[in-house]
Specification:
The complex is a heterodimer.
Chain A: E1 2-5, E2 14-20, H1 23-38, E3 49-57, H2 60-77, E4 80-92, E5 95-106, E6 120-131, E7 134-142
Antiparallel strand pairs in A: 1-2, 2-7, 3-5, 4-5, 6-7
Helix pairs in contact in A: 1-2
Chain B: E1 8-11, E2 14-17, E3 29-32, H1 35-40, H2 43-52, E4 62-72, E5 74-83, E6 89-90, E7 102-111, H3 112-115, H4 119-129, H5 144-153, H6 155-160, H7 166-170, H8 188-194, E8 207-218, H9 221-226, E9 233-240, H10 243-265, E10 277-278, H11 282-317, E11 327-333, E12 335-344, E13 347-356, E14 359-360, E15 379-382, E16 390-394, E17 405-406, H12 416-422, H13 425-434, E18 438-441, H14 444-449, H15 458-468, E19 472-484
Parallel strand pairs in B: 3-4, 18-19
Antiparallel strand pairs in B: 1-2, 2-3, 4-5, 5-13, 6-10, 7-9, 7-11, 8-9, 8-19, 12-13, 14-17, 15-16, 16-19
Helix pairs in contact in B: 4-11, 5-11, 8-10, 10-11
The chains are: A alpha+beta, B alpha+beta.
Amino acid sequence: MAYHYLEDFAIADIAFEATGKDLEELFSSAADATMNVMIEDLDTIIGREGREIELRSGEPDMLLFDLLQEVIYYKDAEQLMLRIKDMTITEKAGAYLLRAVGIGERLDPKRHEQRADVKAVTLHHFKVEKAGGLWKALVILDV
Amino acid sequence: MAKPAALERVSEAVWELPVSFKPGMRVPARIYGTEKLIGEMDDAVYDQVTNVATLPGIVKYALCMPDGHFGYGFPIGGVAAMDVAEGGVISPGGIGFDINCGMRLVRTNLTYDEVRPRLRELIDKLFAAVPAGVGSTGFLKLSRQEFRRVVEEGSRWCVERGYGWNEDLELTEDNGCTPGADASTVSERAVDRGFNQIGTLGSGNHYLEIQVVREANIFDRDLAEAFGLTEGQIVVMYHCGSRGFGHQVATDYLRLFLSVMESKYGIRILDRELACTPYDSPEGRDYFAAMKCALNMSFANRQMILHRIREVFSDVFGQPAERLAIHMVYDIAHNTAKLERYLVDGKERSLLVHRKGATRAFAPGMAGLPERYKKIGQPVIIGGSMETGSYLLVGTAGGRETFFSTPHGSGRTMSRTKARKQWHGKELQRQMEERGIYVRTASWSGLAEEAGGAYKNIDEVTAASDLAGISRRVVRLVPIGNVKG
C-alpha cells in the first residue's frame, strides 16, 4: 500500500497522493488513504462484516471517485469502517467495471483512535494517471 | 506566497485583479484584506477566485473575503452573484459540501464567576450530550420518512415537538425553515447518511464553545446590549453543518452536473469542482430544492444541539433553561446560495448569491431580519480558532458592495497534515488548560490540527472587514471551554 499526505496543499482539507502498479493496487491504496484520515491505525479495524461493491464508469478517475464515496457512505450510513479487498477492474468497450468487497467493522471509539471525519471527495486537481509504468492518483478530501 | 503583480489596491482593504488576468474572466476579482492578510494569502486564492470570475451569469465581481484560503472550486471565503435571468449558474462548488455549515450564538444570564467552578462538569456533560467525531449519531431516532419531513421543515419540526422555543425560530436565518425545500429531489443515499445524525457536531473545525464577554473586548457597548450581551456574561457558540446528508446532496449533484454541463448546456469550466448548470434548468432547480433540504437539516441539527445545551445547563446549574435565560442571539449559515434582489447597473435583478465560507451580513432596515434587529442590522457570528477567540459583528450599509457578505472565520494558514506534525493533541490540551480553556475532544490529532497557530489572526480578519466597511465589530468573545469534533 502506498500513499502519503501532502503538507503544503489544500490547507483546510486533506490531500494525498497514492500509487500502484495497476489500477486495483492504486484504488486499494487510495481507499486506505481515505480511511486513514478518519482512523489513525488501520490495523485496529477488524474484518467482521463485508459489503459487496460493484461500480461502473466510463473513466477510471470517476471510478475511483465513486469507490472513495462508497467508503464515506458506509461510514455515515452504517458507521462501518471498511477496507477494500479482492478488487478486480475490467475494461470492456470503453467502460470500466469494478468489483470488490469492503471488509471492516462498526466504529468503536474505544478501539479506533479517530482523526477527522471525511465529508466528501472533491474533484479539485483530482487526477488518475499512469506515469513511468506506475499508476498515480491525486485526491483532495473535504474534511 | 507572493501576491500577483496584476493585483491593484482599490482602497485600504480592497484589492482587485482585472479581467485581463486570466482568459475567460467575465468580471474582475476583488479580494478583501489588509496588506498583511493579502501578503499571507495562499496563491490558490488568486487562481480560484479568478476561475469563479469565468462562470456564466456572474455580475460585478468574483469576491473573496479577508479569511480567504485554498478551497476547491471556489476559494473558502468566496462570494459570487449570478443573474438568473441571464443564464446565471448554480454550482455546488460555490456552496461547499457541508451545505449550511454555520454558526449559532446563544446567551445566558450566567457570569464567568458562576460558571468557572462548574466548567469541567459543564464541558464533560456537553461532550456526552452532543456527539462529536467520525460518523457520530444523535439521540433522535427517526424513520427515513420522518427525516424527509425534517429536511422540509427544518427547525420548525424540532420546536413543534418540544425541542426548542418559538423565539428560536425568529432568531434563525429564514426562521429555521428555508422555503422551497423538496425532499423528492434528494437521493435515498443522502437520507441514509443523515437520518441518524441530527444533533451531532461532526469533526474537523466544528466545535461547541463556552465563551465569556470581557469588558475590554466590547467594541460597541450599545450594540452589544442590543444583542443581549454585557460584561462578564457567559455565552455558547457552536459551529456545525448538515453532516453526511448535505455532503451527499452536494456530491450527487456535482456528479449530475458534470454529466450535463457541457453536453446539454455547452458550459466549459476551468476546474471540475466548479461543475454547474444554469439556475433556470431542471437540474439547477432540483439542486436548489435539494440544497434547501440540506439548509433545513442543518438548522434542525443546530436546533437539537440547542435543546441539549439547555438540558445540560439546566442539569448543572439546577434551574430551568428559562430561568438561566438561555436565549439565542442568532443562527446564520456560511455555506449557502440564496436568491436575493439587487440593483445592478440601474436595474433590479434576481441574483443567486453563492457564499462559500462567507456570512450574509444584512444592513439595518433590510427585509429578512428579525423584527428586533431591524433597526440595528444582522448579527454576524465569526468563529475563530479554539485558542484565540471569536467575534460578533453586525451588518452595515457598506456591505452592498459584497452583496452583503462578510468573513466566516479565521481562515487557515497551515495544512492539517503539517499542523499535526507541529502540535500534539494531549500536550495542546494541557497547555490550553493552563491558560484557562478546558477542552474535550473526540480526536487528539484532530485537536492538534485545530491549533490556533494554524489559523490567521482573527483580529486582523475582522479589522479588515471593519476597514472595508462590510461589517462592524461588536464584541470579541473569549473561549473558556470547548467541545471539539
